[in-house]
Fold:
Amino acid sequence: MTTQTSFTGTVRQMWDTRPPRIPSEQGGNAKIAGVCEGIGVRYQIDPTLVRVLFVVSLFTLGGGLPAYLLAWLAMPRYGMSTAPAQAVARRKEELTPPERKERSTGWWLIIFFVLTSGLFTSGGTLASTGILAIMALLAAWWALHLRTPQPPAGLLADAPARVMPDPVDLSGYRPAEGTDFPPGRTSPPAWDPLGTAPFAWDLPDPGPAPRPQPRKPRIWPWVALGLLGTLGALTVLGGVFGLWVGGNYGDIAEDRSYAPAAEAELQRHYKGEIGDLVVDLRQLSELDGPRDVTVEGGIGPVTVFLPGDVPVALACEEGIGETDCTPGSYNDDASGETLELRIEGGIGPVRVTAPAR
Structure:
């Protein structure tokens, strides 16, 4: 019991103190999205070493790309507390303008991650190597956290109770547009000739600080982004071609809607993939026998309308996203057998509408 609690607490601390991304427009020496830069600053290691590990996993395990996309999904920008995956799981109206940008980025990252990780392949090489790379990423994250459990002061938007005892210079980093500097950040002390250099009391005040020189544009990060986009596009085209050859084109990335009106039309399992899933049971008539039905969310919103004339025993399982599914019994006074309905959330909001009484 103690080991399990300790493990759970460590995992929670890892997530609460996970590194932010520091892209180049925020002052980081980022090459793509600032993932490696943020990991380096958070755990006080050379970001170049992190980049080398991702590249090595790309050419050896073959899963460095989905591992990088997963890290991108889980890491918020410097100055923010909401990662792209969290922005996707929330309603758009609940997000601030900077978080809405992360939401659209999150949807694209999820699509590319699903396609490149091999989740829709059956025992293929891409699937196995993607899982190996992700496991290696998680193992490295665990080791880094055990080595440096406290983050630098002023790095995380949601400041933890404990931070590194030694200050870390974060003066070169700027928070994301529309956000504030994270709490706990300290500015370098002002120039004070009286306190630090008594022999220089007669010196004049220093002039204005020199203006920083603009950075020279870097070409190769755009080349890397182009290669990444090309790889993603080829993966999409390959997946579409494979689905077309197998006769299943359009079965994954599409909205799905079901409205059974009779017991014979009722399926045992409604599963969403990428897109909206709507299961409308309002027209369902009285059941002759008990039925078990599962509604499983995929990537996208799930909407379920409960029947009005059928007894329902509802069970709910949360996924990643907001949900208003309330387990319990509905329509107890209705005639006929009971519908055992289980709703399992995926990645996206879950909305369950009960009949008005």
User: Anything to note?
Assistant: The two ends are 47 Å apart (CA to CA). The chain is about 35% helix and 10% strand. Residues 4 and 194 are 56 Å apart (CA to CA). The chain has two domains: 2-185, 256-353.
